[in-house]
Amino acid sequence: MEMEEKLASIGKISTKRMFGGHGLFHDGKMFGMIDSKGQQYLKADDSLKAEFEAKGAEKHKRMPYYSIPAEVVDDLDELLSWAKSAINATK
Q1: Please, are residues 42 and 83 in contact by the beta-carbon 8 Å criterion?
Q2: What are the domain boundaries of the chain?
Q3: What's the pLDDT at 16?
Q4: How confident is the model over 36-61, as a mean pLDDT?
Q5: What is the value of pTM for the model shown?
Q6: Distance between first and last Cα of the chain
Q7: Backbone angles phi, psi at 82, to 5 degrees
């Protein structure tokens, strides 16, 4: 999976099939997901919502996850920063 490879420098990232897509896990905690259409999302707590929205992320309909804008996916440093923030939001 491409996203799993991009995030490898963060540590052991695992995936699990769920909801017709995949959940992204770090240390057993879900911090992201890829839906059945391939849209990628990261978990956001209250402190991250405004930051993610300012960059164009949109909230998932039912879950506290935000879409990852294409510009972020294409910029590895920014993607890693977002992913680390999402991982911290699971703690």
Answers
A1: yes
A2: 2-89
A3: 93
A4: 93
A5: 0.89
A6: 25
A7: -60, -45
